Amino acid sequence: MAVSRPRRARAARKRAVRMGRVEHDLTPNQWARLLALWGGCAYCGTQGAALQRDCVLAISRGGRYTVGNVVPACASCNASKCNDEVTGWLRRKRLDEQTFLTRNAQVQIALRDPAEPA
Prior knowledge:
Elements: H1 5-21, H2 28-38, E1 51-55, E2 70-74, H3 75-81, H4 86-92, H5 97-112
Helix pairs in contact: 2-5
């Protein structure tokens, strides 16, 4: 079923309002560091594909583009996750929840201390 233009336009306006309500402070340098530390999709581990910024806590649920909330995701994982809660989504997709959470913690520590290997 195709989504009507007015519905799409309404959704785009709602997203613009949500995006305007919060401060996004992810810098290009931080994004480049995240890409380097993860080395691929944070969820499925795919390497070599174009990666997108995905908010672990979706913007529609109060998240924002910050270094602590953004992970690189392949287009498939990003579209599939949508605005779902990350651990529930990982379980439904039968991806390794524990590996993601552990690796995310390691990356966050490495971002705080550049001398710390990821």
